[in-house]
Amino acid sequence: MITMYAMFLLAFFLLEVAVGVFLYVNRGQVESITRKSLTTVFDDYSNKSESHAFVDEIQHDFSCCGVDGPNYWTENNAAAIPHSCCRDDGGQGTTCSKAQAWQDGCLQKSIDLVKSTSGMLFKIIMGIAGGELVGIVFALCLASSIRNEERRQGYA
């Protein structure tokens, strides 16, 4: 039973290592993946209520506007700039003027967030993997000790 526990821990450990290697190899694609995902969500702003709420939340929380700035809304969607782009919440209505809008795009702010949190995430994952490795060693030591004790009792 304890050996089986060690095997499960080993499987999770190997899975974490595989994911870590995959993320390390593909770390250069963060910007292109983020751009594609963000553009898809922003393009669906008028069509899906989930996208609408998500985009408004991103723009408000990150103090940004559009994928690359307020021009995104006028160039790509032929729609007015949403109110969530406004610098102050004191405005009325559902739109915002270009002068009142945040000038920074949400893409760069999202990439900066991913890059700033990836180091901490890596450390957390490595800490968990290290704990699993220690658990594997202790479980195998305990299983060996139990087997040795059973053998010793056979000679008594």
Automatic annotation (TrEMBL):
The chain crosses the membrane at residues 6-25, 124-146. It comes from the Eukaryota. Coiled coil: none annotated. Keywords: Membrane, Transmembrane, Transmembrane helix. GO terms for cellular component: plasma membrane. InterPro entries: Tetraspanin/Peripherin, Tetraspanin_EC2_sf. It is found in: Membrane. It is a multi-pass membrane protein. Its main location: membrane. This is Tetraspanin. It comes from Aphis gossypii (Cotton aphid).
